[in-house]
Amino acid sequence: MIDVERVSKSYRRGAAQIPVLRGLSCHVPQGAFAFIVGPSGSGKSTLLYLMGALEVPDSGAIRLAGESLGDMPPQRKDDLRRRRIGFVFQSFNLLSNLDAVDNVLVPFLPTGEAAQRRPEAVDLLRDVGLGDRLDHRPSQLSGGEQQRVAIARALLKQPDLILADEPTGELDSATGHEIFALLRRLQAERGTTVVTVTHDHRYIRQEDLVLRIQDGVIVPSEAS
Asked: Does the model's pTM come out above 0.85?
């Protein structure tokens, strides 16, 4: 599903160039449930954003389902993100003027499909425990509730790939387990590939793929 080959990425901070990823390589098979783990600042989110074509590597190659992201024109990348990838960001990225249902429907507003997907959006919000918050705007929701709206938005696409950056960071333990149960159900029923950045190892199962980043490269998962 995802092949990352000798990818390097750095960021400029003032006059300094700060390396984050240093020739990193990894493979995530189709249908895998994968976790990206490692110390703070190790490049976990950077790798996730590169996989989703939200950022561009300084060098190296990334292939998604055999297609090189580096060779894709911008319009093709936009369509890929809209149709095939579900994103769950730490910052939620909800629109303040829309209620919970319409925020879930945002990916389908430009395509004219929102009306026909509305019942499914409502069902997903009920699945994540927000059945009584359907008409609430982000300012009326707690951080955890906003996160659940963002997760429902990602799931509505029925994407081939879900990329989640600390999806349970704003949730209590019980709700966190419910969210991962939803993600695992999607993986089991549709073969969806799920890649999650997390600091919380409680959600990792023995059969999951664990990508541990240290010093800008992938190291064996048993390394500290």
From this structure: yes
